[in-house]
Specification:
single chain; about 475 residues; alpha/beta; TIM Barrel; 8-stranded parallel β-barrel; two-stranded parallel ribbon; 12 strands; binds 6-O-phosphono-beta-D-galactopyranose; GH_1_N_CS; hydrolase; 6-phospho-beta-glucosidase; Glyco_hydro_1; glycosidase
Length: about 475
């Protein structure tokens, strides 16, 4: 009983939130580099404001991030010390193809990731690689409008081919796109979309995500052809919506909100768009830009496993004024009076995690992989230590809920990677002070600090959890 023997315990990061070294190794500029700190971040992320070049009025956190670029050996050694079985990281597209459309890949970038994967294997850590975690070369955004253009599929395909060939034998777990449903909330980040005035935004988003879904299916096919050991997963931002009350209108709103969460992962896991997705689009005067052969490609190349992020459950209310989006949480939700919240106002709901695991397994009947979960908190460094018992508490309850889903509900689960195993830049706010890690990084929101790594109390706790395969929480 309990977790399977080969359960993949570990932690997760993303290139733009972790690496820094943005001007090194011939790297090009990506959309996520241009996400400033401060109020404008939300406007840029949602495609309401164009930031086509760096300026002096803003601070851009991704440029240095937490400097994993120069610290990766030290950081991977720390992951090894915790006993990680896997480490989730993403490839910065612009390290491999700086503009996205070069003939030949950039060898410095390819070598950088090769070194990282080799370093991981030294410690028995299996890399889990997100091919696209919110990054798109700015050159392609300016030239062809990012993922609204079907041409993006060819550029992405070339990237995938390069990676699958070069890293054959070094990487076997791949995720195509991070949080495929994020396009509905953060379209510039997820697909490089900036909207024109009076544009049908839904049409732009569905066009872009359809291209991503095709690219994902092509990548899945290719990965299997190049190495039959490759395991490909989709990735969605999950978290069940509860109705605010038992009023039928609230329940109906929750059904609709949940459908928006699953709408695109459905295509990756089942191979087709659900009828409600087509109706949802019709209502918004939008449609999927199908071309001959698309449906077959999607149908024949579904993923091997379904991965997801879970931070909190959400609440649907038929009173629309109650569920506004905020800068600290890009998903809309009414307040849940039964739950405590994090320092950033995210509801803490371990049982919701168990529900979400069950909902996903019921729906897809494919192995699941939790690739993000964790608590963003304002840690305080006291005499060289960080006593983050609140994080231990959050993770303990969530791992227990996950264990219940496995043991009592029969969910088939491959692994668990906590988000931001080392402190990094927040995607939503651009802060580093919203810390998730087991490892503290001495760097403030404005990039000042020594970038020294310090183990938090949770570091030792997680080590014990892994050692006992989740028995000693
Ligand atoms: C997910 C993203 C991550 C990560 C996480 C935490 O949506 O996949 O990149 O950032 O959320 O969110 P935040 O950084 O806003 O706290």
């Amino acid at each position: 009983m309990g977790f399977r023997k080969d359960f993949l315990w570990g932690g997760a990061t993303a290139a733009n939130q972790c690496e820094g070294g943005a001007n090194e190794g011939n790297r090009g500029v990506a959309n996520v580099d241009l996400m400033p700190l401060g109020e404008d971040r939300y406007l840029v992320g949602t495609g309401k404001m164009k930031m086509y070049d760096f300026d002096d009025q803003h601070f851009y956190p991704a440029l240095t991030a937490v400097d994993f670029y120069h610290h990766y050996k030290e950081d991977i050694a720390l992951f090894g010390e915790m006993g990680f079985k896997t480490f989730r990281l993403s490839i910065a597209w612009t390290r491999i193809f700086p503009n996205g459309n070069e003939e030949k890949p950039n060898e410095v970038g390819l070598k950088y990731y090769e070194d990282i994967f080799k370093e991981c294997h030294k410690y028995g850590i299996e890399p889990l690689v997100t091919i696209n975690h919110f990054d798109c070369p700015m050159y392609l955004i300016k030239k062809i409008g990012g993922w609204r253009s079907r041409e993006m599929i060819n550029y992405f395909y070339k990237l995938c081919k390069t990676l699958f060939i070069r890293y054959k034998g070094l990487v076997k777990y791949w995720l195509t796109f991070n949080e495929i449903n994020m396009i509905l909330h953060f379209p510039f980040v997820a697909a490089g979309l900036c909207f024109e005035e009076d544009e049908n935004e839904t049409q732009a988003m569905i066009t872009a995500v359809h291209h991503q879904l095709l690219a994902s299916a092509m990548a899945t096919k290719l990965a299997h052809e190049i190495d039959s050991n490759n395991q490909i997963g989709c990735m969605l931002a999950a978290g069940s919506y509860y109705p605010e009350t038992c009023k039928p209108e609230d329940y109906w709103k929750a059904i609709c909100d949940n459908r928006e969460v699953y709408m695109f992962a459905d295509v990756q896991a089942r191979g087709y768009y659900h009828n409600y997705a087509l109706k949802w689009l019709e209502e918004r005067n939008a449609s999927i830009p199908f071309v001959k052969g698309d449906k077959e490609l999607l149908k024949e190349n579904t993923v091997d496993f379904v991965s997801f992020s879970y931070y909190s459950s959400r609440v649907s209310s038929s009173d629309l004024s109650k569920g506004k989006q905020s800068e600290s949480n890009i998903f809309s939700s009414a307040k849940n009076p039964y739950l405590k919240e994090s320092d950033w106002g995210w509801a803490i709901d371990p049982l919701g995690f168990r529900s979400t695991l069950n909902e996903l397994y019921d729906r897809y009947q494919k192995p699941l992989f939790v690739v993000e979960n964790g608590l963003g908190a304002n840690d305080v460094l006291e005499n060289g230590s960080i006593h983050d018992d609140y994080r231990i508490d959050y993770l303990r309850q969530h791992i227990q809920a996950m264990k219940d889903a496995v043991e009592k509900d029969g969910v088939n689960l491959l692994g668990y990677t906590t988000w931001g195993c080392i402190d990094l830049v927040s995607n939503g706010t651009g802060e580093v002070k919203k810390r998730y890690g087991f490892i503290y990084v001495d760097r403030d929101n404005l990039g000042n600090g020594t970038y020294q790594r310090i183990k938090k109390d949770s570091f030792y706790w997680y080590k014990k959890v892994i050692e006992t395969n989740g028995e000693d929480l």
